[in-house]
C-alpha cells in the first residue's frame, strides 16, 4: 500500500515539475527587451524638399516651400515666372531648380553668343551696317534706361511702407536655456532650440510680416515664418498655439505664439534665421545675454 502511494506521489511530482518548467520557459521567452533612452533632446526630423519639382498642397505658400528647399523665395519665383504678391495654387507644379534654358542662358551658350556678337561687330566695322547698329544700340539703351526708371519709381512706390534694407534690431524670441545649438553641416540643426514651459510667450525677433502660419511643414509642428525684408526671414517652430495670421504685420517683441511641443518630443522653441534662403547662426544676430 505504501509503495503504491509513493508511486502516485512520484508521478504527480514529475508532472508538476514539467508544468513549472514550461511556465518559466514561456515567461522568459516573452520578456520585453530593455528600452534604451534616445536622449532627452533627440534630433528633429525637419522635412526638406529635394528634387526638381514640387506639387503645391493645401496650406502651402511660396515662402514655406522656399523655406523647405533652403533657397530664396525670389529664386523659386523666377524659376516659375511668379510675380508679387507671389500667389500659388493647390495642384500647381513648381520648379525648384532652374530650367535647362535658364542654365544655358547664363552658361556656355551665353558666352558663345557674346563671342559671335563680337565677331559680327568686328566684321561690319566702318560700314553702313555699323552705323545702323550703333543707332539701334543707342535706341535700345534709351529704352532700357526708361524701363529702369519706371521700375525704380514703381519699386519706390510699392516699398514706401516696406521694411528697411537691413534688420537694425533683433531680440530673443523667448527666454530659456539653449538645449541645441546651430550646425552648418548638411544634416545639422538649422537654428537653435530653447527650452521652456508650455504656454510660455514666443515673440517676434524683429519687425516684419507673417508669410506663413500653419502646420504643413513636417517636423516643425505649428510654425510661424516672418519676412523682415527682401533678405531675411525668421522661423518659430513647435508652438502650442499660434496668435498671428498670414499677411499680418508684427512688431519686434510682439507675442506671436505660445511655446509647445508640436512636432517634437518635449516643450521647446526651435528658432531659425534665414538669409536669402540659407540658414545662418541666430547667435550672430541676437544680443548677448
TrEMBL record:
Protein name in UniProt: LysM peptidoglycan-binding domain-containing protein
Spans annotated as Disordered: 101-152
Pfam families: LysM, Peptidase_M23
Compositionally biased tracts (Low complexity): 106-118
PANTHER family listed in its UniProt record: MUREIN HYDROLASE ACTIVATOR NLPD, PEPTIDASE-RELATED
Chain intervals with Basic and acidic residues compositional bias: 138-152
Domain LysM: 52-96
Residue ranges with Basic residues bias: 119-137
A GO term, aspect molecular function: metalloendopeptidase activity
Similarity remark: Belongs to the E.coli NlpD/Haemophilus LppB family.
GO cellular component assignments: cell division site; cell outer membrane
The organism's place on the tree of life at top rank: Bacteria
InterPro entries the record matches: Cell_wall_metabolism_enzyme (IPR050570), Dup_hybrid_motif (IPR011055), LysM (IPR018392), LysM_dom_sf (IPR036779), M23ase_b-sheet_dom (IPR016047)
Natural source organism: Motilimonas pumila
